[in-house]
Amino acid sequence: MRSYRLDEVTKRAFEGPYMEERDFDMKLMKRTRELVKEHDLRFNPEELVTLDDSMADDAWEAGMKLFLELGFYCQTTKRCIKFEEWEVKKVLNSLSTSLTLGAGKDAVKMEMRRIEDPTSPVIHAGPTGTLCTEGDVYVKTLRSYAQEAVIDSVGAGTLATIDGFKIRKGTPQEFRAARMLGRWARQAISEAGRPGMHINDIAIVSPEAKICALDPVNGIRPTDGLLVSQMIELKTSFAHLALIEHMLSYGCFVGNLMTPILGGYSGGPEGTAIVNIAEHIAGAVCYNANYHYLSLTNVRNLNGTDRAGLWTISIEGQAFARNSDMMSIYDCYCAAGPGTDVLLREAAAGGVASSVSGLHLMGCGSCGGKLLDHSTGLEARLLKEMALAATGMRREDANEFLNTWVPQYEKWLDVTKAPKGKTFQELYDLGSAKPKKEWQKKYDEIVGELTELGIEIR
Length: 458
Fold this sequence. Notes:
Layout: H1 4-15, H2 21-38, H3 53-70, E1 72-74, E2 79-81, H4 85-92, E3 98-101, E4 108-111, E5 123-125, E6 131-132, H5 136-146, E7 153-154, E8 158-159, E9 161-162, E10 165-166, H6 172-191, E11 198-199, H7 207-210, E12 225-229, E13 235-236, H8 238-250, E14 253-258, E15 261-262, H9 269-286, E16 291-294, E17 297-298, H10 307-323, E18 328-333, H11 341-356, E19 360-365, H12 377-389, H13 395-405, H14 424-427, E20 428-429, E21 434-435, H15 437-452
Parallel strand pairs: 1-13, 5-19, 6-8, 7-11, 12-14, 14-16, 15-17, 16-18, 18-19
Antiparallel strand pairs: 1-2, 3-4, 9-10, 20-21
Helix pairs in contact: 2-3, 2-9, 3-9, 3-10, 5-6, 5-12, 9-10, 10-11, 11-12, 11-13
């Protein structure tokens, strides 16, 4: 337990420089654009996995500068939580490079990965914040992930209703939903024959409600984890810091969840990379995070699988791999929905770009996570299988593949064109939680195309 650091974080949240939130946003926008120019960061749409080590290092340096200069904004006190460089480096130099997630026969080792790393990445799969129908449908949805042998961890789904009530932030129903999400996740992995599998999160808005899921018998155990969010961009609150205090006392894993908006306050891909690197550092220093969710979102199309998104996550992954021991997880948000070849193509691209750049994986966030019950285990299976195929792959070879593969789906990424696909109930047998023939056939066809390109699906 390292909650002593939270005492210092809290103190600085009261004593740091006062600033209105809008002024912080404006300062972040201005300084980010300056740092892009100062470090000459340039997005190359033809080189989605950067080959320039110095640019990855420059992105890291820029992200560090941004965090040190602006700090971590506390919305509760309207003050900036700031640290000296030596304090940040002390934390970064103390990070673990290996974690054991889950328990017993179902435990997996998650290790710090480097560029072109032959070590297999871990996948934290699940609906990724996508709305799901409560009860048996939710259990079967998670089971569809847990039944896939290549999947290492499940969770992160959210509910539209609980006992028929619409879930609103801060209501009693949200607290009840948190408790039931933990129970249903435990039920799903038990039914899949993997009772010790790592549960990565229960997706509830209010930080205080998440505490209801902490239950060593029926919910989140110390071998599981929860995600603690940052607000856009580079912001926190006492509610989030209080959740971390409780999690550290309980002993479960802390995941730092960031949702940088590409095309928002941070600007284009170059600025988004800088801001998100700063957010990773904030999570390590202020959240005591064990791992970090790089949940990149395109401001228009709600995905991170277009050229700009893939380039951004690649340069970030390489920046972490070359300059730190922060374990980062690419949260693969896709534009298309289950049952479509577009979704599988997006997942395949995300798996390659992230794996070769030193990242772990999470996914998939189908339809940008916006449509009810649009999540299945099959697309997550391909995401992990492609990441495994890319372990040890040269960056040059990854680029050759992506420049062949991305043109096959990128015209469908526009929010008005992306195929929405079908629901879990339409694509899976609700008894066995296994894919129906039409969805399995689509998956097999895409695997066949990949095989012809020389990609070995393990």
